[in-house]
Amino acid sequence: MGTSHEILERLRQDPVVPQVQVQALRLELPYDFSVDNYAQILSDTARYIAPELGWSPAAAEPGAPCGHCPARAADTSRPSSITAIA
Length: 86
Fold this sequence. Notes:
By secondary structure, this protein is mainly α. It has two helices and two strands; from the N terminus they run βααβ.
């Protein structure tokens, strides 16, 4: 739990993370979040956390919707607080 920056810092302190080549990223989230919370977590992870760990989307246009997630009404230009990543 925490901001994108806080989560990224904890991941950087994990001794295993630098040894892993990030080609796929798995998030385990609780089942009781709202759709907006899931969208925020996935967006922040894809835009701010995963790229700092070496991940990049495969042939995706920057900012283009993936087609699987609903569009968010909120501004996504800045990272917000991620409520939980289990």
